[in-house]
Amino acid sequence: AQSVTQLDSQVPVFEEAPVELRCNYSSSVSVYLFWYVQYPNQGLQLLLKYLSGSTLVESINGFEAEFNKSQTSFHLRKPSVHISDTAEYFCAVSAPKAAGNKLTFGGGTRVLVKP
Amino acid sequence: DTEVTQTPKHLVMGMTNKKSLKCEQHMGHRAMYWYKQKAKKPPELMFVYSYEKLSINESVPSRFSPECPNSSLLNLHLHALQPEDSALYLCASSQDSRAGLSIQYFGAGTRLSVL
Predict the structure, then answer these.
(1) In this complex, do B97 and A100 lie within 8 Å of one another by their Cβ atoms?
(2) Nearest to B34 by CA among B80, B77, B3, B84
(3) Terminal CA-to-CA distance of chain B, rounded, Å?
(4) In chain B, which residues have their Cβ closer than 8 Å to the Cβ of A96?
(5) CA max distance for chain A
(6) C-alpha angle A9/B5/A41, rounded to 5°?
(7) What are phi and psi of B16, to 5 degrees?
(8) What b/e string do you get for B48-80 counting C-beta neighbours within 10 Å, with b at 16 or more?
(9) Distance from B99 to chain A by nearest Cα, in Å?
(10) B68 touches chain A (CB under 8 A)
(11) Looking at CA atoms only, how far is residue A94 from chain B in angstroms?
(12) CB distance B100–A100 less than 8 Å?
């Protein structure tokens, strides 16, 4: 079984400041890693994913995440946030042979960007 | 087109009512999912359909009854719900149910209130 821990439940940050959202996972097998974003009153959108290859993955809107196998982490970063980045961010994992493509989510981190 | 459409957006029902939630996708995906999300919590998987067959039921009470009439449609029939069933119900779809290789796309959800 897998588990995901997002260490910060809330992260207030000023506009144009950098932000880092921490995600650690536990698994006895290799996993695939995801970050999803949920804007207010909306569903989840995939932000980025790590399946294999380069440990640094980037999204089109300036976010990046780095897979660190030794630390079992997949932290999300953005060098300069916008008001529009205010949202809930979920880290998730799935195991390659998990039945039904099951995602295990962390508890979420609420990012509030202040002007 | 990566859209998953859920209707209705909001639903209020009494404990003796019968209602249905609807989910539709036209991406040719063969796996569809129902999740339940309580406020300030991550989504919890309820059901997975793969090629129109129920492949996973996460021990969901029988007052929730899923149905997949065809590969584009997924319904969730509700009967005799309890107030604690009030939540955001999210539908997702993916190309198939191979873990990690098949990204899940989420709808905006139906916000259900049980009185």
Answers:
(1) yes
(2) B77
(3) 36
(4) 99-100
(5) 44
(6) 30
(7) -100, 0
(8) bbbebeeebeeebeeebebebeebbebbbebee
(9) 4
(10) no
(11) 6
(12) no
Chain B residues whose beta carbon lies within 8 Å of the beta carbon of residue A98: 99
φ, ψ of residue A47 in degrees (nearest 5): -95, -50
Which bin fits B9, alpha (ψ -120 to 50), beta or left (φ > 0)? alpha
**Could you tell me how many CB contacts below 8 A there are between chain A and chain B?**
75
Query: Span A85-102, mean pLDDT?
Result: 87
- Closest approach of B63 to chain A, Cα-based (Å): 22
User: A28-81, pLDDT tens digit by residue?
Assistant: 888 899 999 999 888 899 999 998 888 899 888 899 999 999 999 999 999 999
- Backbone CA torsion sign across A10, B112, A48, A14: negative
